[in-house]
Amino acid sequence: MLQETQFLSPTLGWALIVGLGIFLTIIAITVRLKLVRNTKDYIIANRKVGLGFSVGAVIAVWTWSMAIVMSAASAYTWGLSGLLWFTIPNGIAIILLAPLALRLRKVVPNGYTIPDYIRSRLSSGFAAAIATVIMLLALLFSILINLKGTVLVTSAVFDLKPAAVLAVVLVIVTVYSYLGGLWTSAITGTINTLLILVPLAVIVLFALATIGGPEWVFDSLASKNPEYLSIFNHEAAAAFGLTLALGLLGASVSDQSFWQKAWAVKPRHLSRTFIWGGALFYPIPIIAGILGLIGLGYGVSLADIGGDSASIGPYIISHIGLPAVIVALYVFVVLNCSYSSIDGAFSAISSLVSVNVLMPLFPRLGGKALFTLTKLSIVLFGIVAGIIVMSGWDFVSLVLLAQSLNASILVPLLLAITWRRTTAAGFSWGIILAVAIGMSVRYFYGELAGILTITGVSAIVPITLGLLNTRTFDFQAYARQLEANNDVDQRISNAS
Amino acid sequence: MTYAIVAALLAVLISVVYLYYVFDGIQRASREMDSAAEESYDWASYTRINFKVLNSIIGSIVLIYLLTVAPIFWYLVPFAGLAAAVGVIIAFIIEQRSADEG
Q1: Residue of A100, A202, A227, A489 for testing the chain B interface, max B β-carbons within 10 Å
Q2: Which has more pLDDT, A230 or B82?
Q3: Alpha helices by DSSP H, B1-102
Q4: Is the C-alpha dihedral spanning B27, B30, B35, B40 positive or negative?
Q5: Which of A32, A64, A217, A471 could disulfide-link to A297, CB 3.0 to 4.6 Å?
Q6: Are A198 and B85 inside 8 Å of each other by CB?
Q7: If you measure CA to CA, which chain A residue comes closest to B11?
Q8: A213 dihedral zone (left: phi>0; alpha: psi -120 to 50; beta)
Q9: Rounded Cα gap, residues A427 and A154, in angstroms
Q10: Contact B71 A214 (CB under 8 A)
């Protein structure tokens, strides 16, 4: 029997939000004092990140707060087929970065950002500017979406005011991200991974024990609709699985948080970082998805949870009679997801702003000024994210827009990394036309048609222009040239 | 409730070991930052990507499939989460060994 809604004490909610923030800030200060001495340490950790921190950080950055609530929502909406289609593309999106990262790091061992690679590989400031804008927007959207997940859970469990939660979370993460850059992000992210994986496992086992074991849920699902217990329901694939898969691939490839780590990790650990990161990520959405199945078992209706399927996880946790400490632990897990993803995004923003905005715009900027302005960009983006969230922008539109932008850069970027005939015009116009045409198609014909169009146009344009191009790019000569003279690396190395 | 209690005890144990390796990792990183040695880019000696990559994908599909077979398998999933935390610990151990080997 589900219980009436009873909010936990708001004081406990604030204690969790602020307490976790203080704990991570103390770690950030320690990291700052021990490991960060200059701009290069700040934005690329002097390329000395080992396997443990890189794997831990990749899992944490990819585990968005919305991933915890959306995996439960997918299971609640489609049963185990929904959980399968939510989970499998998520891990693949990370694992696929391994060969790409290896390829890119071989060509540009001392790189910093994707737009910087695009600038030098395609000899085009315009193409680099497009990549910079899309990647910065993607990072901004990831911050906003994580804030949405945090608000959803803290409102459902503690009845906290969304505006206050947003303001406090943004200030906390901005402060500790400001302190240590990529080292902070990698180390706090690794701790966040522990604080996501371990409590989540315990919470779900307590939830199953409280409701009388999984046997009851299993029988309930079988009696309600046997399709819920099948992983072969093709409707789940058609309704959201394919769209999500393409969106996730675009999201990982266009996310500078991952590329920053690809260039910061020690070369010998590079491919393992993404393969292990994707593999060890897998249990997280599957565990969280069980809460959605429990909701289905109870026959919770959408109306019961305010019409938003994303609320099913927090609803189940706070309505099955779990002890307050377990409910608070669930919020703690979501906060860890949110903090680590926002922190990873801030760290990536600092590298993009430093390398692709400040250095080209102010070529004579001194090392100290570059370091200070790089850090201030985090504060600026924190303020912008706060303003957008406070303005009440519809989050569904936001997620869809982010997905479209991510999908538009996926194929052009893959081609720029792997295909010798890729041109600057193909890269730039592929993205511009894909966004313009694909967004229109999405408006009239829906999500799946929209994202397929975006992916199709973004592939056809660069491939066509590439085939028309008579010249081919020599990656080996390019690598030798960069080894002899990498102006960005020299400038950052010289900035103390 | 037995599964939950066993998991809680394992969680404490795993957390202690995990945090030890995080602390140790910070210490080692600090020492490395102080040394001027740069890692070589001898790509030929680094991990190759092979069919083993598929193991985790197939493993996860099997894990979700098992949820459709019998309720007893539902208990496996949270323990897979604990195993993933152990996986990160193993990553630290591999890194430590590879550093010791030079």
Answers
A1: A202
A2: B82
A3: 2-34, 53-69, 76-101
A4: positive
A5: A217
A6: yes
A7: A198
A8: left
A9: 42
A10: yes
Between CA A192 and CA A57 the distance in angstroms is 8
Q: What predicted TM-score, i.e. pTM, was given to this entire model?
A: 0.89
- Exposure string of A90-105, with b = 16+ CB inside 10 Å and e = fewer, is bbbbbbbbbbbbbebb
Q: How far is A434 from chain B (nearest CA, A)?
A: 30
Total tally of structural domains belonging to chain B: 1
B75 lies in a domain? yes
pLDDT per position as a tens digit, A24-61: 999 988 988 888 877 778 778 888 899 999 999 999 98
Identify whether B42 is part of a domain: no
Q: Which single residue is written with the structure tokens 């540009």?
A: A108
All domains in chain A, ordered by first residue: 11-400 (1.20.1730.10)
Are residues A109 and B41, on separate chains, in Cβ contact within 8 Å? yes
Instruction: Enumerate the H helices of A36-79 as residue ranges.
Output: 39-44, 51-62, 65-78
A402 sits in the region (left: phi over 0; alpha: psi -120 to 50; else beta) called alpha
Q: Is residue B44 part of a domain?
A: no
Angle among Cα A142, A148, A149 to the nearest 5 degrees reads: 95
Dist CA B8 CA B1 (whole Å): 11
Rounded to the nearest angstrom, the minimum Cα separation between B51 and chain A is 11
d(CA A120, CA A113): 11
The percentage of residues in chain A with a pLDDT greater than 90, rounded to a whole number, is 37
Distance CA A147, CA A388 (A): 11
Angle at A72 between CA A3 and CA A70, to 5 degrees: 125
Please give the Cα distance from A34 to A183 (Å, whole number): 10
Contact A216, A294 (CB under 8 A): no
State how far the alpha carbon of A366 is from the alpha carbons of A136, A213, A358, A463, A489, in Å.
24, 63, 11, 41, 15
Gap between the Cα atoms of A477 and A358, Å rounded: 28
Which of B17, B20, B23, B95 to probe the A interface (max A CBs under 10 A)? B95
- Give the other-Cβ count within 10 Å of A33's Cβ: 12
CB contact at 8 A, A163 and A321: no
Determine, yes or no, domain membership for B91. Answer: yes
- Tell me how crowded residue A372 is: count the other CB atoms within 10 A of its CB: 12
Can you give the residue range of the structural domain that contains B11? 2-34+49-101
CB contact under 8 A, B78 and A230: no
Contact A283 B81 (CB under 8 A): yes
What are the pLDDT digits (tens) for A176-216? 777 767 898 899 999 999 999 999 999 999 999 999 889 99
Rounded to 5°, angle at Cα B57 from B55 and B62: 90
Q: How far apart are CA B57 and CA B59, in angstroms?
A: 5
Strand, helix or coil for residue A265? strand
Q: Which residue has the tokens 């669930």?
A: A330
Give, as one character, the DSSP assignment of residue A49.
B
What dihedral do alpha carbons A79, A85, A90, A93 form, nearest 10°?
180
